[in-house]
Amino acid sequence: MLASSALVVTERPSAYLQRLCEHFARERGRHGAPEVEVSFDEHEGFVDFTPIVRGTCRLDAKHEGVLVLSATGVDQVALEEVQRIVGEHVERFGRDDGLTADWGAASEVASPD
User: Fold this and answer.
1) DSSP states of the chain as a string?
2) Spatial distance between the Cα atoms of 50 and 52, rounded to a whole number of angstroms
């Protein structure tokens, strides 16, 4: 399993966390897209993209001024796809605030199995 993180500097980390998770939850099953697992509150979120790609993303808005994104994938291709999906949404939703998700280098992590 590979993992990578991105720090998204924003004055509204909780608002962006909720908007991203609400979007991914709302898209479940729409337009023929497979369902993804989404859970979140105002400080933490989790999206399991396994029906689309074997990977996940945790969102953390516990610290003021930053939204922390932590992506995982079973391999480099899966990790890059999770990064692409989440990163494109961060940039689209945060366009007015100039948000970007600059992902760090991938590292090996233990599988949660």
Assistant:
1) -EEEEEEEE-S-HHHHHHHHHHHHHHTTTGGGPPP-EEEE-SSEEEEE-TTTSSEEEEEE--STTEEEEEEEESSHHHHHHHHHHHHHHHHHHTGGGT----BPPPEE-----
2) 5
Q: What distance in Å separates the CA atoms of residue 49 and residue 79, rounded to the nearest whole number?
A: 11
At 49-92, the pLDDT tens digits run 988 899 999 999 999 999 999 999 999 999 999 999 999 999 99
Which CATH number covers residue 37?
3.30.310.50
Share of the chain above pLDDT 70, in %: 90
Instruction: Note whether residue 84 is domain-resident.
Output: yes
